Known about the structure:
The structure holds 2 protein chains of 2 kinds. Chain A is α+β, with helices and mostly antiparallel strands. Chain A folds into 2 domains: 2-102, Roll (Ubiquitin-like (UB roll)); 105-230, Orthogonal Bundle (Fumarate Reductase Iron-sulfur Protein, Chain B, domain 2). Chain A starts with a strand and ends with a helix. Chain A is 30% helix and 15% strand. Chain A is elongated and about 60 Å long. Chain B is 34% helix and 21% strand. Chain B contains 15 helices and 24 strands. The interface between A and B is large, with 60 and 57 residues.
Amino acid sequence: MIVELRILRYDPERDARPHEEVYKVEAGPMDRVLDLLHKVKYEQDGTLTFRRSCGHGVCGSDAMLINGRNRLACKIRVDQLGGRRITVAPLPGLPVMKDLVVDMDAFFAKFRSVQPFLIAEEPATERERRQSAKDRARYDDTTKCILCAACTSSCPSFWAQPGYVGPAAIVNAHRFIFDTRDDGAEERLEILADSDGVWRCRTIFNCTDACPRGIHITQAILEVSSAIVGRHA
Amino acid sequence: MIRDHEALIVGAGGAGLWAALELAKAGVDSAVLTKLYPTRSHTGAAQGGVCAALGNQEEDHWEWHMFDTIKGGDYLVDQDAAEVLAREAIETVIELEHMGLPFNRTADGKIDQRRFGGHTRNYGEAAVKRACFAADRTGHMILQTLYQQCLKHGVKFYDEYHVVDLITEGGELGDGGRAAGVVAYRIADGELVTLRSKAVLLATGGFGRMFRVTSNAWSLTGDGVSLAYRHGVPMQDMEFYQFHPTGIVGIGILLSEAARGEGAYLLDNDGFRFMERYAPKLMELAPRDMVSRAIYQEIRAGRGIDGKDYVYLDVRHLGRKVIDEKLPDITDFVRVYQGVEPYTEPIPIQPTAHYAMGGIPTNLLTQATRDAANTVVPGLYAAGEAACVSVHGANRLGTNSLVDLLVFGRRAGRQMAVDVKGVGIPEISPDVMEPVRAEIEAIRGRAKGERKEVIRTELADVMMDDAGVYRDAEGLERARAKVAELRGRYGAVSIDDKGTTFNTDLLEAREVGYLLDCAETMVAACINRKESRGAHSREDYPERDDVGFLSHSLATKGAHGAVELDYKPVTITKFQPKPRVY
């Protein structure tokens, strides 16, 4: 079938403002939006610009706004979008560099701000630390994050307050706060208790809907909030 | 613009990140350049596990791991390197746990381990539980953990800088010159940046995008291997390229060997576990080259599903608990990309181009070497898939790619930290970026020509059909002629995007050039190796020939661009070559 692809495009060297361009491409139901973008780029218009790498939902390069929702282009099929017209735009709330490419620097700076690394004494032992399967399961969900920014850029609180640290950074803090091997929870909770921290979350659940890894993000944020409240109790 | 660092690392996968970590800990001023963001690197796509003889589940010894690696590589493995790999696997996995990697755990809280293809107890008796894992996203966890540690230790990153040339001092790298830095293209604005340094590590991964069906990321185009080659460094063992048996039909996305490690079956059209015909002892857990050939044989014999070019991977009998806890990601891939429900349906699979055993030759210290005498190229290092040390020989065992990048990434960082002491920042000519600038402007400035993607697609087709799982003289000659034709056409490649902002059109055109270099040497090395060994399977020379070919190939760029082949001996220490049966 022929699918009409409406792509929001912007080239700072040529365009005063973003504009929509329409492409028609031959597609099957199992094709992914990334396949269609490649068809446009390779057969019709090589100037169309987007990021992609692994092509199967694990590297986090190709998050974009597809039919009004943040998705990975490589993980959403034509048949799941239920129509012959598909709209594609860059992630909302982040500065556009060109076409579907957004500037991720501020996003990664927020990720770095929560100390996303194990803080612990170097074990003296030459063997692994022990951790029970149950303790390991406690933070399993938030280890899945691929830093694609689909969550943070879908969050109305982030749109309203760009200083908000955002769901992705909180997810990555959660991954360590609830790891029994980590000793840095206090520092991270202090960072996230800031006015641009977890309290900006209004439990709208956009982040959870947007996550291509199925992480229960809102729940993770609430668990971090509870830990902040409970810390001196 | 010129910047100086004592050491540079090109590529931010597992090998590059661990090297960077070691350099940072040693207080060496260093930086990582990546054409992506570090967390996008393809190490993150590795699934099933990382082998280390921890013995957490059952008796195991690093000597067994060493032996399996050598036998798995069909005795083309350098045995001193395999010993380093198997011994240091244990330390590096423990160190990763100390860094915070969330391994799955046993009932008593140790790192959990599972079976993987070709990994056995007591020198081949039966499969052993050696693969340490974090669900089926072990590579993701390794990449994340190493990146986290790099942030903790203040590693400097140049994100989205595409390295487009190597800088040399005192002649070409093949003639005694030293590596003196890189030229990088800043993707955001098209600026060319010169970075000088005393040491350069190439950790740029493989080149699976030269094949039509591949598990590899779009970014895996052989950049580092090709750039070194253009400056006189050989490519080693290019004829050995691994096809992973279980890729998603048509698109090649990988379904981890961990599925078979957990007990999945491979079935033909009659529902028969056909590996019984090829490897009765290890069955589905035979090494990948053998399983991929078995699938091709079944398909040729008309036993593919409905007579088509695929067979089934079946996980149904494992039960939902095992599938959900140990194979969650790959079963998700099956649902998303095939519309198949693995709880209740068998999964259609076919072999997919996966891993380069060959690459930039190095010694055990990761220093690049340039000839059959293993003469070191000063200042140049390689690790991970881009390198050939050689721990994989003619066929890599499952999980050993991760072991390789951990062990030799760590070694690279430590070695560079030693080697940069007492060496000055090199003197380089101010116009060092002019040759590559001219190349780039030629592509950008060409008004009309051929689309790069047409060239890449034709390359991928011929490599898949004529230089894939099975090879013969006729097909390889066809491939050689086709690659030569494509190289000619590539001279007239043109692009639509003439701008400087985030010009991926331009960079992809460069990448096709790298793939052509790798394909050309691969085909030449394939033609010359008139035997079958590991992943190199010649239908016209079906036997292994230890008298003629127990040696590594070295492909060098000759005076007029033609590939010149030389050979160097395999290092054999403990295990004499034997017939390879499983």
